[in-house]
UniProtKB/TrEMBL annotation:
The keyword Signal applies. It comes from Ruminococcus champanellensis (strain DSM 18848 / JCM 17042 / KCTC 15320 / 18P13). Residues 1-23 form the signal peptide. This is Glycosyl hydrolase family 98 C-terminal domain./Glycosyl hydrolase family 98./Carbohydrate binding module (Family 6). Transmembrane segments: none annotated. Keywords: Hydrolase, Signal. It comes from the Bacteria.
Amino acid sequence: MKLKKICAALLSAALLTSSFAYASPKGTAGNDGSSLSFLGNQFQVSTMTAEAANSVMRRPCSPDQPMLIVHIDTWNYADPAKIIALIPEDIKPYVVFNISLSINWSSTDHKWLMVQDGYECAKSWLKTCADEGVWCMVQPASGGQCHLPDYDSSGNIVNYPNKSQFVPHADDDYENTIYAEFFRDYPNFIGFNYSEQFWGFESQDFPVTPIQRYQHFAKLLKLCNKYGGYLNINWCANYWSAALNPVAMLKRCPEWRSACEQYSANLQLEEKYTQLGFSEDVESEVLGAYLSGYCGNYGVRYDETGWSDSTWSGSGDVTKEQYRQITGLPIHMERMALNGATIIDGPELVWADDFAEKWGGIKDGDYSCRSWDTKDQYVNDTLGFFRKLVDGTIRIPTRQEVIERTKVVVIQDNTTGDNHNKYSTYPTLFEGLYRMSGDGNLDKNYNPYKSTGRYPTIPTVYALRDSVAKSFQVQIKQSSIPSRWSSISAKQDEFNKLFASDYYGNCYAGRYENTWVTYNSNKDGSNCGAVLSLKYNTCKNLDVNFNQYGNALIKEYSDRIDIYANNFDEKAQTTLRTDTFKISGCAAKPSYSAKDTGRNQTASQISESYANGTYTLTVKHNGPVEISIQCKGNETGRLSNPKESSVKAPAYPSFYTGVRQYEGEFFDTQNVEGNVANGCGSGVTGFWGQGFLKYGAKNNAAVRDTVSTTKAGKFDLTLRYSATSDINNVDLYVNGSKVKTLSMPKGSSYSDWKTVTQSIDLKAGDNQVELKSNAALDGSLYLDCFTVKGDFGTGTVEDPDPINGKIIQELTVFDKENAADWSIYYDAKVGSVLYGDRDLTITSMPKNLVNAEAIRTACDSKLSTNDLGKFTAGADATIYTAVDTRVVENMPEWLKAWTFAGCSVTTSNDVTLMLYKLNVKKGDVVALGTNGGSGNSANYIVFAVPQEKIVKGDVNLDGVINGFDLILAKRGMANGFTDTRSFDAADVDKDEKLEKDDITQLQNFIKLSAKEFTETPVTKPAPAVLTEPADDPG
């Protein structure tokens, strides 16, 4: 199946939206203080002109509109369209796709080993994201190494490998740079993501200093404010990086501090888990930047790289045997449900934990197609958790609420001593509070987990910027800590007076209002638990007990307790581990409901017991389980009216009208020489994406891609190629019709890329573009990409004209994106083409539907979650809908009014479509609803025949009920029917199943021992007449 076409259809709703979502935007020094050589003396200051920060965000990010950053990563050699296609429709509106130009640079050979030209690759993938109608940002850097240029405080470009591509001097507003270009050219672009800003500065090939980087950041932040975008920086730390941490850069770089004071809403800061050590220091400073008013949003970028097993001693090679992606879920839960984080970025490593290419791809007819899939752990852990934000289960508290809950802030006011003293958190700040027992401080703080949730995270800040920040109840200067707390116990005494205990036990449990975050904080997986003092529910306590990887998000209500528990172990998916939830003080035996929500999840085993007012639910599971326990007790004085989530999906970007670009390395192929997914090291230069395609010289070679437009018309297709021989025997086809044999003159080498332009006609919707050899080529042909330029419309597809048949009249297709591929035909039979956008055919069907009138739908319409269309019956008729068995498992509501017909249609790609029927009268309006919105299915098809009259018991349809009908009914029960009418006649009790009771009743009727059939019909809703969706269903 053509995955790129699927991806285009997935966002048809997005492409209908024509406006932005507008909302108010809410180097290292030595221990003696001297500058180390790799920092240099970069302290020159130029004052930034002050101006009000008043930008309207293109894509707002807030507690009501959280952000999931999904990586389109060059380490994955990723096709952006196919990565986009993997994200579920309910989550996609919240997603920002990060075009991750991952860094792989050879300092020995002084060349890129991954992504030869970051600027051109970024533009290409930006075009794809814009065409797909999704939000995106670009990650140009990891550490100091960067694919895009830095400009110093004077606006001069800092030396780096690709320096010659860019303007040497940046205007003060950066409008003459590529940074403004991205904002201007791509309405879906929201900013830049700079990763791991703690390493790689002042090297031979990347001499940029940390101060120069942050001077550059200051200008970028101002630019982001102008265009309503974001500068996203993720921070992790090691022993030598204290002078680069968030507090340090506010202290050391005045330009940066001024920009943060003016444009804080445009800064996103993230905790990054790449390094061992400084876990709580990083958390404290990142949270501190947010709560103190120096950044607008913060989040987490979890990373396997920073994990260490419980068995690791702190020296030698670190082991990661106990790592699973689920180990990041406790961090996400606490940061978002308790501390106000609004962003999940990643997690990493992307190719290990998120997406993986299916090597060898998949077949679609004669074409081979590259294909990617999501990892189970990404679906069950990250996407599963984010869905709890989307559905309102988790409410993210506001900045003011977090400050009120947190109470304590530390202001890093030290100006002397080593860099840790001047910039890091106080070394023993977390010890004796929530730092895990046996763990160390600062660089020896390897464990990201916390021993208790009694004490909120303590933020460490540069200063308190605004009135909200200044509302902290307890403001402590870091320089005063030695005299304030003479011992760990003295610190504990002060915190215990501020924070009452809500629970007792040895696992983590933290609460805000009616939401509890609980998890097993033992890296080794040893059992732990806690007894939670209920605050909203009228029962007394909830005792939770977790085994390895166990965690639960718990919500209290007056009459129930909801639990989202997850312990998914991708390395032992069939192993069930036991977690228990014990409620004491019940007035009567509670009841529960539960469902597994994971993919490829072993079924959970849940048991209950009740005695003496205590209810125990034992949950053996491996993956996410949603549990609701209906329970009440007799406790009084409970809290009530917790704040409810008001999460709402951001609008999609405005429609992109610019040039589309289609990379050769992502083409579907036949008989080509080879695909170069990563062109670095190939000996070929100058390609625009991450790689290119070696088309080769075979006479039967071919490639294809899909171009979508909402407006039909003429377009210019420009093919970028290289060859060392003239090429005159490759034909260009559009939608199966030959356009022209292309003439491609040779170049001097395969790095000498040429272009050839041809005018083509495109229809509204999807268009298949192919290049096919008509004979052997004189030499190998390389293909970089092709671009398409023209009027793609406004994103709103015009209403299609109704289609009229004989029985099927006034067929109106609501799925405008794919309406051009719908049609009516009159001779359905084996060999008939099923869909207007696929070459799939019928291989078997019931004989009573041969030569039926039929609707040839678009297979891509399956991805719409809205109603697909309607028609008016031109005569009394029986209408059949053939539905993929994978859809039947979760039958759409509109089809539940139809009757199972007992037969199926099979297709040339081995899909079985089960038949359902509905009798209608002339003039009735027949509703055609959604196919379910799943890409892992085929769309339904529709047949219409004159209304069938069924006589129950007349299985062979000869007008007489006798022994021959009984024989045929028995054969049908054993082997199936070839005529839906025979199944209907044999189903004498009308329960839509052929079973022993039907045979017995038929036998008794023939023997005259029964004069009529006893019916037990299935209760069905009335058929619905569905209305056409609005142009913007989102």
